[in-house]
Every structure is written in structure tokens, then in C-alpha cells.
Design a protein that fits this description.
Length: about 300
């Protein structure tokens, strides 16, 4: 039942992303082509799936806004990757197993394509609301806006860049955690909380989802840092070993491989504990828990 529902939802998501980036009369504009190149060029769609699976913990179907809101999540994630790959940022020539957006369309168009997707995300959510929005819908929108903004993902990227500056000095594990909490965790946590808001769950359940989202986001980033050290480009889809060569501050480069593995185990334990508390409240947690376990154990 859940698997069939997720298959339909993921198909609907891809159709929505395609249609939302086909402006009548402007389809051939370089900025739109660049945006579609990055948005539709593969990817695991982790954040939309987190939203879907969270909703399916509470109901047999998802709220009507879920597909559009999950598409907006993916637009914001894709915009962040386009900008992250730029020479002025993380400077990576490959993304999702092929040349990065700026390598194909140039830096200026890539910057604009990222800007386009960020703005389209909000247009897309607003366009999906056909009647007076409920407080739950508005809360989901606010969650995404806050996670992506200057007190969330953008601030996290700023901290990441600041730690590359020689004047920053030696980074501590807590510095890396604070950066990852903003740069990666906030959007992953938002995906889960958006599912909770759209499902109109009570405040105590939202608090648990927040804890789960936080642990899930940190686990995801720690695993990503580990994979950067042990994978090749074909498996990873982007340039491996880049963090160490560039002197970037990650869980591995600051704490060592064993320290990163210990941190991963700690966050995974917090994740499992959060789900135990949801199970005690009678919720069917397997749709989301099984997926998050797979993310923690992934090899690419």
C-alpha cells in the first residue's frame, strides 16, 4: 500500500517539476534550460520523499498540497547545489554524475538559474493553494522559508566558507556541527516538519519530528563526509576526496574517520529513540524510519 502510494507520488512529483519549469514562450531561454538541466537531471529526491513518508505515518494518503510543496523543496535544494558548485563556493565541476550547471551554461547563467529556482519554489507553493490557506499550510510554507534563509541554509553556507579562511584558525567539532545544523540539517528537518504540518499533527508530535529531523540531517551530513573519503566519482556522482584536498572542515577532516563514525552512531541512536517515542503514541513509523535507516547506511 505504502510502496504503491509512493510510486504514484514520485511520478506526480516528476511531472510537477517538469510542468513548473516550462514557462510558455520562454522554454528555450538559457536560464530556464539551465534550471531544468539541474532540477531534472537525476538526484535521489530525498527531501520530497521525506515529506511524503512523514505524511504516510499519519494517514493512508497525503494532503493535496504535498506534491507541490515537495516540488518546492526540491527546487530549493537544486538551487543550493547549483550555487554550491560555483568556483566562488565549493568549486566542483561535477554533480549527479555529469558536469555541473556552470560548466555547461557558464557561471552567470548558473547563478541566475539558482535564483530562478529559489523564487519559483515560492511561486509554486502559492500557485498550488486554491482557497484560503489553513494555518497548517501556512506553517509548512514558513518552515521551508526559514530553513532556506539567512538563519538557515544560507547562514550555514556562510559559516562553511568562513571556516575555509586561514584567519578562522583551527575548527572544532562543535564548529562543524553548528555549520552542518544550518547548511544541511535545516532543509532535511524542514521536509519532515512540513509533512507534520500538512498532516496537522499535534504540537507534541511536531516537537518529536523536529528532534528526528535534526538527528536525520546530521546523520546524513556525517555519512556524506565519510563517503567523500571512501567513494569514487562514478559512485558518488561528484568529485570525491575534494574536502580533504581543499582543506574543508568536515566531520572527517576535523575529528578523523573514527570520530566521524562515533558521531554518526550517536546521531543514529537519537534518531531511533525519537521513533520509539512516536511508536509509543501509536503511530506507524516504518514508512519514514526504514527510509532514514537506508540513508544512514547508503554507499553513494
Amino acid at each position: 500500500m505504502v510502496d504503491a502510494c509512493l510510486t504514484d507520488l514520485k511520478q506526480a512529483l516528476e511531472q510537477h517539476l517538469d510542468q513548473a519549469t516550462k514557462p510558455t514562450g520562454y522554454e528555450a531561454s538559457p536560464v530556464w534550460l539551465a534550471a531544468r538541466y539541474s532540477l531534472l537531471g537525476g538526484g535521489k529526491r530525498v527531501r520530497p520523499e521525506l515529506l511524503f513518508r512523514t505524511c504516510l505515518m499519519f494517514n493512508d494518503s497525503v494532503p493535496k498540497e504535498s506534491v507541490a510543496f515537495s516540488a518546492s523543496l526540491e527546487m530549493i535544494h537544486s538551487y543550493s547545489l547549483i550555487h554550491d558548485d560555483l568556483p566562488a563556493m565549493d568549486d566542483d565541476d561535477f554533480r549527479r554524475g555529469r558536469p555541473s550547471c556552470h560548466m555547461v551554461y557558464g557561471e552567470a547563467t548558473a547563478i541566475l538559474a539558482g535564483d530562478l529556482l529559489l523564487n519559483r519554489a515560492y511561486e509554486n507553493m502559492l500557485s498550488s493553494i486554491q482557497e484560503e490557506p489553513s494555518s497548517a499550510v501556512l506553517s509548512a510554507m514558513r518552515e521551508l522559508a526559514q530553513a532556506a534563509g539567512g538563519e538557515g541554509m544560507i547562514l550555514g553556507q556562510d559559516r562553511d566558507l568562513a571556516m575555509e579562511d586561514p584567519a578562522f584558525g583551527r575548527a572544532s567539532p562543535s564548529d562543524v556541527i553548528k555549520m552542518a545544523e544550518l547548511k544541511t540539517t535545516r532543509l532535511i528537518r524542514a521536509a519532515i516538519l512540513m509533512g507534520g504540518h500538512l498532516s496537522d499533527v499535534p504540537a507534541d508530535v511536531l516537537a518529536l519530528l523536529s528532534e528526528i529531523g535534526h538527528a536525520a540531517g546530521l546523520s546524513f551530513q556525517i555519512k556524506d563526509d565519510i563517503l567523500d573519503c571512501v567513494s569514487n566519482r562514478d559512485t558518488l556522482g561528484k568529485t570525491p576526496h575534494k574536502d580533504e584536498v581543499a582543506g574543508k572542515k568536515t566531520f572527517v577532516t576535523v575529528s578523523g574517520m573514527q570520530g566521524a563514525l562515533t558521531a554518526l552512531a550517536s546521531e543514529t541512536a537519537k534518531l531511533e529513540a525519537g521513533f520509539e517515542r512516536l511508536k509509543e503514541r501509536g503511530y506507524q513509523v516504518s514508512p519514514l524510519l526504514d527510509y532514514l535507516r537506508g540513508l544512514v547506511e547508503r554507499t553513494c
